[in-house]
C-alpha cells in the first residue's frame, strides 16, 4: 500500500465516523448536556410581545351559591369624617357602574367583643360567580375608587367565600362577621369539627335569623392568614345579646379554643 493509499484510508475512516455520530438515532447525548424541556427548546416559536393574554374560563358557581367579597377598612387618624364619607360614597357608587356586582351591603363596626383589630368599615359585595369578580377587580371604575381610598386606609382585610343564594331578606339585619385563623398544627378533623359545630348553632339558637359560611378563595393577598368566614345575622341587638352568652355558643367556643390561632369579628347594621 502506498503512502497515498494510507492517507485515503484514514480520511475515509474519519468521514465515516463523523457521519455515523450525526446520524445514528441510538447515540446518547453526552452526560454533560442535560436534556431541555420542550417548553424551553429553541425551536418552539415564541409568542409575539404584543400577543393578547389567553382567555381564562371560570367554572360556574356551585349550585345554590353566589360569590361574596367581604372587604374591611381601617382609616388613618388624620383622615377626617368628610374623607371617610367620600370614600364610602365612592364605594357605594360602584354597583351602578359595574353590573357584575349583583348585591352590595355596608356598615360600620359595632361589635361589643373588641375583636375587630382596628377595622371600622365593612363592605359585602356579591357576584354571580368568579367571572364576575374577574371583571370587577381590574375594572377602571374599581381602580378609580382605589385612587379615592389611597392615602387614607390604614389596613385592608379581604376574604371571599361562596355564600348561600335565596335567603329571605330581613327588614333590619345586624350582620355578625366572624373569621378564624387556625394554628399550624390544627388537623383537618379538628377544623371539620369546628365547621360542623358552628353550622349547627342556627338550629339551637333561634335568634340567629340567617347563616352562611365558607372558606377563603380570594385571589388577592389581604386575608392575613384567615381561612374561614362565618356570617351570622340577627334582626336586633337583643338577638345578638342572647346569642353571645348562650350555652350552646359557649360550648362551641370551647371546641374552638384548642386549635384557634386568632379570631376576627366585625358586626354592622346592613346599609345599601
Q: Explain this structure to me?
A:
Helix content is 31%, strand content 26%. It is of the alpha+beta class and 272 residues long. The chain contains eight helices and eight strands; from the N terminus they run αβααββααββαββααβ. The strands form two sheets. A four-stranded antiparallel beta sheet has the order 2-3-1-4. The termini are far apart. The protein has a single domain, classed as Alpha-Beta Plaits (2-Layer Sandwich), CATH 3.30.70.100. α6 runs antiparallel to α8. 18% of the residues are buried.
Summarize, please.
The protein is an alpha+beta fold and about 270 residues long. The chain has helices at about 5-25, 80-90, 95, 130-135, 140-150, 190-200, 235-245, 245-255; strands at about 65-75, 100-110, 120-125, 155-165, 175-180, 210-215, 230-235, 260-270. Helix 2 packs antiparallel against helix 5 and helix 6 (about 190-200) packs antiparallel against helix 8 (about 245-255).
Note the main attributes of this structure.
alpha+beta; Alpha-Beta Plaits; four-stranded antiparallel β-sheet; 26% strand
Topology readout:
Elements: H1 3-23, E1 65-75, H2 81-92, H3 94-97, E2 101-108, E3 121-127, H4 130-136, H5 140-149, E4 153-164, E5 174-182, H6 188-199, E6 210-215, E7 228-234, H7 237-243, H8 247-256, E8 260-269
Antiparallel strand pairs: 1-3, 1-4, 2-3, 5-7, 5-8, 6-7
Amino acid at each position: 500500500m502506498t503512502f497515498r493509499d494510507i492517507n485515503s484510508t484514514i480520511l475515509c475512516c474519519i468521514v465515516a465516523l463523523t457521519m455515523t455520530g450525526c446520524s445514528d438515532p441510538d447515540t446518547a447525548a453526552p452526560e454533560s448536556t442535560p436534556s431541555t424541556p420542550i417548553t424551553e427548546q429553541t425551536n418552539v416559536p415564541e409568542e409575539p410581545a404584543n400577543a393578547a393574554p389567553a382567555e381564562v374560563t371560570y367554572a360556574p358557581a356551585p349550585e345554590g351559591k353566589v360569590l361574596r367579597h367581604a372587604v374591611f377598612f381601617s382609616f388613618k387618624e388624620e383622615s377626617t369624617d368628610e374623607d371617610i364619607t367620600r370614600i364610602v360614597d365612592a364605594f357605594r357608587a360602584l354597583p351602578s357602574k359595574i353590573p357584575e356586582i349583583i348585591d352590595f351591603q355596608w356598615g360600620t363596626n359595632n361589635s361589643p367583643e373588641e375583636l375587630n383589630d382596628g377595622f371600622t368599615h365593612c363592605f359585602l359585595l356579591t357576584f354571580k360567580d368568579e367571572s364576575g369578580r374577574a371583571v370587577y377587580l381590574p375594572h377602571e371604575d374599581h381602580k378609580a375608587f382605589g385612587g379615592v381610598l389611597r392615602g387614607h386606609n390604614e389596613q385592608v382585610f379581604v376574604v371571599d367565600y361562596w355564600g348561600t343564594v335565596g335567603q329571605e331578606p330581613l327588614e333590619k339585619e345586624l350582620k355578625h362577621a366572624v373569621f378564624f385563623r387556625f394554628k399550624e398544627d390544627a388537623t383537618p378533623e379538628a377544623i371539620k369539627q369546628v365547621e360542623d359545630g358552628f353550622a349547627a348553632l342556627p338550629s339551637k339558637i333561634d335568634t340567629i335569623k340567617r347563616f352562611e359560611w365558607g372558606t377563603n378563595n380570594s385571589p388577592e393577598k389581604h386575608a392575613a392568614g384567615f381561612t374561614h368566614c362565618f356570617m351570622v345575622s340577627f334582626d336586633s341587638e337583643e338577638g345578638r345579646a342572647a346569642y353571645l352568652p348562650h350555652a350552646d355558643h359557649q360550648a362551641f367556643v370551647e371546641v374552638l379554643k384548642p386549635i384557634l390561632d386568632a379570631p376576627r369579628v366585625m358586626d354592622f347594621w346592613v346599609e345599601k
